[in-house]
Amino acid sequence: MSTVTKSSPADCAVIFPPIHMVGSRSFSLFYSFSFASYVLHKELKNSDVTSLGRIVLPKRESETYLPFLAVKEGIQITVRDMFSPDAWRMRYRFWPNNKSRMYVLENTGDYIKKNGLSCGDVVALYQDEYKQLKYILSRSLMCISFEIITMNNRHKQSS
Length: 159
What we know:
The protein is α+β, with helices and mostly antiparallel strands and 159 residues long. It contains three helices and ten strands.
């Protein structure tokens, strides 16, 4: 089980987000924060939102941007929720898969439940400028679609 701890709220200076592709649809969802840089995002699958409490991470981004894992048990990391004072204790590890690796973030069940996430929702990981603290941002597809419509309407009105 993940552990929730309270910390001071992050200073979230929101800048207009870039467009990222999720599946075959384009969503305007990943915000840029003055204190954190984008690492990866994942559209949640059924296996990510079960009671097992683990999210399978994209391999390429995990190997490029997250710490190297020497042993499969991985490392314990604290992940701060970008929009609340909560911090979640999760485990970043890998499973051997033939001659390759599958990367997972474990102990995510409480985070998934608290944020009401389900299949099709998106989570993104960010890290601070020292590559120490990890931050998580989640958005449901309903919220994302609304943001795109709102931003598109603003763009048309200002043109």
